[in-house]
Design brief:
This protein has about 350 residues and is an alpha/beta fold. It folds into 2 domains: about 160 residues, 3-Layer(aba) Sandwich (D-Maltodextrin-Binding Protein, domain 2), CATH 3.40.190; about 160 residues, 3-Layer(aba) Sandwich (D-Maltodextrin-Binding Protein, domain 2), CATH 3.40.190. It has 14 helices and 11 strands. Helix 2 links the parallel strand 1 and strand 2. Helix 8 runs parallel beside helix 14. It is globular.
Length: about 350
């Protein structure tokens, strides 16, 4: 009997060595803009459920990230790309960087968010770019808060508005689009000349506008009105070391003062393995699912596109939603964006 066992032992060792080992985690690379954020535990939940490791590549603002995706489309840097918004959507589709994916999760998302009927770019979140004001400034100066775009050009609001350059900043571009929708082309240029004459301050990016120029966040800036987001009142409360009784800032929600931004995710072309494609699809489904959609308001201060998501208390209480936001079709934006930006530059900066 012992001789038989000794004889069989090498066979057992050989078979054990040849037995397939459990596959290690598969890496999924996701390109995003710099403002992307998600809770570690939420990403780990996806990784554990799919035996995966998710690697994120932050690639600048939305426009810069899209440029990188387009320039590298023949040798993609990632499997999935999140962060293109409706101001750049047509450009992304024209560049043909995505593979179509008809996610089953789309059935839960209202049709007005699904701007790409080919399902190359799938909606993930929404937000509203609006003028945001410092409540203390207006109270202490006994000055009514402006309610409309026209109000911002009135003499009583001279030198009070800071905005981002539309050529270098997404919020600046989006606010420019709101004025184009409201006043029409080319009448919007007369409005911008009026704003310039009324002391409009322009800076390169949102962080400078909000944290340096705006008086409502740091308390050090000179302008009590900034072009930012309707969720800022909630963000200020949620980020405060000691939650205030009320948000120190508010959004101006008059007709067309806000423009709705929608951000999208898509699978980049170039995935050669079916297994990798399947994992990319799962990640897109995950971003459109309840767990990720619930996490977004606390991380990126954006609103879900999936209905009936439970929002954090402060977000539900303080985030503001305009009743009449401005919108323009992605095709119209794509056809005119560069000309509009150049015309704005000539009217405001030159």
């Amino acid at each position: 009997m012992k001789r038989i066992l000794y004889f069989l032992l090498p066979i057992f060792i050989f078979l054990s060595a040849c037995a397939p080992k459990p596959a290690g985690p598969q890496t999924l690379t996701v390109m995003t803009h710099d403002s992307f954020a998600a809770t570690d535990t939420v990403i780990k939940a996806f990784e554990q459920a799919n035996n995966a490791k998710v690697s994120f590549i932050k690639s600048g603002d939305a426009g810069a990230a899209l440029n990188k995706a387009i320039l590298s489309k023949d040798a993609p840097l990632a499997d999935v790309f999140y962060g293109v918004d409706n101001t750049f959507l047509s450009r992304a589709l024209e560049a043909s960087i995505y593979e179509p994916y008809d996610s089953p999760a789309l059935k839960n998302i209202p049709a007005d968010f699904q701007l790409d009927t080919t399902h190359q770019a799938l909606p993930v979140d929404q937000s509203y770019v609006c003028p945001v004001y410092d409540k203390t400034y207006f109270t202490s100066h006994n000055l009514p808060v402006p309610q409309t775009l026209e109000d911002l050009a009135k003499p009583e609001y001279k030198d009070l508005l800071v905005m981002e350059n539309p050529a270098t900043s997404s919020p600046g571009l989006v606010f420019l689009l709101a004025t184009i929708k409201h006043f029409g082309d080319p009448n919007y240029l007369g409005y911008w000349k009026d704003l310039r004459a009324n002391g409009l301050v322009t800076v390169d990016g949102w962080e400078t506008a909000y944290y340096t120029n705006f008086s409502g966040s740091s308390g050090r800036g000179s302008q009590p009105i900034v072009i930012s987001y309707a969720t800022d009142p909630a963000a200020e409360v949620m980020n405060a070391q000691t939650p205030p009784a009320d948000s120190p800032v508010g959004a101006i929600l008059g007709p067309d003062t806000c423009f709705r931004q929608i951000e999208f995710v898509g699978i980049l072309k170039g995935i050669s393995q079916a297994r990798q494609r399947a994992l990319a699809e799962k990640f897109v489904d995950f971003m459109l699912g309840a767990q990720f959609q619930t996490d977004m308001p606390t991380q990126m201060y954006v609103l879900p596109v999936v209905p009936n998501i439970t929002l954090p208390d402060a977000f539900a209480k303080y985030a503001q939603i305009p009743s009449q936001p401005a919108t323009l079709s992605p095709d119209e934006i794509s056809k005119n964006r560069e000309a509009w930006i150049q015309a704005w530059t000539d009217a405001v900066l030159h």
